[in-house]
Amino acid sequence: MLKIDALEFGYRSNRKILDDIKFDVSNGECVAILGNNGAGKSTMLKCLNKIISPQKGSVVVNEVDILKLNRLDIAKNTAYVAQKSEGSRITVYDAILLGRKPYIKLAPKKEDYDIVEKIIESLSLEKFSLRYIDELSGGELQKVMIARALAQEPKVLLLDEPTSCLDLKNQLEVLKLIQDITKEKEIAVVIVIHDLNLALRYCDRFLFLKDNEIFCYGGMDVMTSENIGAVYQVPVTVQSYQNQKVVIPLT
Length: 251
Ligand SMILES: Nc1ncnc2c1ncn2[C@@H]1O[C@H](COP(=O)(O)OP(=O)(O)OP(=O)(O)O)[C@@H](O)[C@H]1O
Prior knowledge:
Layout: E1 2-9, E2 18-25, E3 29-34, H1 41-48, E4 56-61, E5 64-65, H2 71-77, E6 78-81, H3 92-97, H4 110-122, H5 138-151, E7 156-160, H6 168-184, E8 188-192, H7 196-202, E9 205-210, E10 213-218, H8 225-232, E11 236-241, E12 244-249
Parallel strand pairs: 3-8, 3-9, 6-7, 7-8
Antiparallel strand pairs: 1-2, 1-4, 4-5, 9-10, 11-12
The structure holds adenosine-5'-triphosphate.
Adenosine-5'-triphosphate (ATP) is lined by residues 11, 17, 35, 37-43.
Organism: Acetobacterium woodii (strain ATCC 29683 / DSM 1030 / JCM 2381 / KCTC 1655 / WB1)
Family: Belongs to the ABC transporter superfamily.
Keywords: ATP-binding, Nucleotide-binding, Transport
């Protein structure tokens, strides 16, 4: 469904941040983008949505190179939640309804309101729906931004550290919801995430970025102490606890 090929990007012409990035994400699959600070994870996510334009390569969603589309058509394919979001003077309800913008012609239809209300309920945002988003806590705002992206009903969902401001209960609930939607709607999800144990629990495939390139990409088989140690320069052990792989640092 999502096919990235030969992607190359540098903020300045003399320094490549991403070199020959090539990977596929299937329907119903969630991929974790892993790697240390400054590895280029956020940059890569922005290239997949043409927020920044790669110097080379293609990002194909259902046979169409989205790098050749305009912003409105990209928004019908791909939703993106940034690492940091700014609050503004609109209500939570309206902020989520904005996710429907690519589909709204003159005014929202009943279907748009129904989608927004269902998402508000599934993220337990009912009691916030009439609050202004510039009055929310960091975690509440993060959930609203995820809700807006889900309201967009994308084929590809790009999330940059979606749980960085969330408490443990919300981290688990939000990632479980994303996992369920990934399978139910058969969308392709790409998540930049620092917590390896959350990635192991909720993602299907794992892509490590290191030194501007893909260090390795695959299923559980790439989540080894050797790969994690080489990428993060920290000795770890990978153990199994109640049929769930967990990463434990050895320092
Ligand atoms: N707008 C920009 N202009 C110039 N350089 C940038 C810009 N944004 C990021 N960079 C540089 O590009 C490199 C990759 O940054 P990026 O934010 O993609 O890393 P990351 O892997 O997401 O890091 P983190 O885990 O810390 O969020 C870094 O060296 C960063 O300093």
